[in-house]
Amino acid sequence: MNESSPRHVAGHVPVLRLGDVLLVTLQGDLYDSAAQQLQQDLAETIAHSRVTGVVIDISGVEVVDSFLGRVLAEIAAQAELLAARTVVAGMRPAVAITLVELGLSLPGLRTALTTEAALELLDRPIVTPRSGGRRQERP
Amino acid sequence: MHTAAGAEARLPIRSDMDLVWVRQHVRQAAALIGFGLVDQTKLVTAASELARNTLVHGGGGQMEAARVSEHGTEGLRLVFTDTGPGIADLDRALSDGYTSGDGLGMGLGGARRLVHDFEVVSSPESGTTVRVTSWVTRPPRPREES
């Protein structure tokens, strides 16, 4: 058995609060269990801290497989139900190419090229809800 | 600084920690053989999908990695083996959207699209073996019938 731990492995993901936004920075290679823990932690934190946005910076992530892709999509869906919007920031080009080839284009996920752009996106008023159209007034 | 001991390795797949080792070995081996960044990423992602199948559906197993060479082209071959219950309906398991519980149903079919050569043998008696190979520069070849 190799005793040293693999490089850049995240066993626990820190969640930072910046005003109304939670900032999560994923770095290196993530255990499945750490990703699932993050998913639960974020739901709790959003509910308690009443933030309106979540930014997940994945610029330090070399690989997004279907498991991590699903976790990201579910985090965004959960946040939406808890009245917060999620933006995934900084996806590497090689990761985007691979996700599309894998068949996982994650249509429900908002993205931005940088964390700054993600924060700007969250600053704007909500124009389109996730269904894609404006809420219909009752006739 | 880690020194890659080469592309050859046999790694156990028994926990989500082992999945990390598999990804890191495949990344290092692919870089060593000369794969570009996008092809490295595809191969590591495919390995991650297949290793997770081995862990979750096969009840654990192993991955063997080997450097291969054919007609002057260098490649990396990865063989995932488990002694689990096997895949009952292989055609269905390879189709998009099929899932036996968790995941988005992209595992096997998705992994197949990310590599050049893909072969799966599965039976209830001997478990499942998935053999994939990618080549540094894909030589032109007629499309395989599938």
UniProtKB/TrEMBL annotation, chain A:
Q: Please report the organism this UniProt entry assigns to the protein.
A: Streptomyces composti
Q: Which domain of life is it from?
A: Bacteria
PANTHER family, alphabetically? RSBT ANTAGONIST PROTEIN RSBS, RSBT ANTAGONIST PROTEIN RSBS-RELATED
Q: Name one Pfam family in it.
A: STAS
Question: Which residue range or ranges hold the STAS domain?
Answer: 11-122
The signal peptide here is none
Q: Which PROSITE patterns match?
A: STAS
What InterPro entries does the annotation carry?
Answer: Bact_StressResp_Reg (IPR051932), STAS_dom (IPR002645), STAS_dom_sf (IPR036513)
Please give the name of this protein.
STAS domain-containing protein
UniProtKB/TrEMBL annotation, chain B:
Residue ranges of domain Histidine kinase/HSP90-like ATPase in the record: 38-138
Q: Which CDD domains match?
A: HATPase_RsbT-like
Q: Write down the InterPro entries for this protein, in alphabetical order.
A: HATPase_C_sf, HATPase_dom
Note the SMART domains from the entry. Answer: HATPase_c (SM00387)
Q: Which domain of life is it from?
A: Bacteria
Residue ranges annotated as coiled coil are none
Q: What is this protein called?
A: Anti-sigma regulatory factor
Protein species of origin: Streptomyces composti
